[in-house]
Amino acid sequence: MRIAALLVAISIIFSSTAAFADDIASAQGVIRAQEQAFARDDAAAAYSHAAPAIKEIFPAPGAFMSMVQSGYAPVYRHKSFEFGDSKSEGSWIAQRVHIIDANGEAWEALYTLEQQADGSYKITGCSLLKAEQAA
Description:
By secondary structure, the chain is an alpha+beta fold. The protein has helices spanning 2-39, 43-47, 52-57, 61-71, 73-76, 131-134; strands at 78-89, 92-101, 106-115, 121-130. A four-stranded antiparallel β-sheet has the order 1-2-3-4. It comes from Bradyrhizobium ottawaense.
């Protein structure tokens, strides 16, 4: 009986770990797809990864892209873009990204994503700080 209970507990731990890993991989895929859309100057593709609340604030892809270009230059253009730590809670994921901008300066971005009714993840926000401020 104890062995069966132990096996059930182990399977639950590993299945939740696998689900967590799948969710993180999905969220990172969304962030990476948006990053690549920025690199191609594809406003429509970049905008497609934004959550509904972001689309309410920026109702057109062009307005969204202008905001990113002016307010998030290290996200828009950079030398490197590497994923850091992730945290998942309920339908939300927080993902750190280490960025080296076009001028060689280090930045920390914290993306937040929310799982949508269809199971996909959309970006709800991005906070950006110079790396020395983030420490």
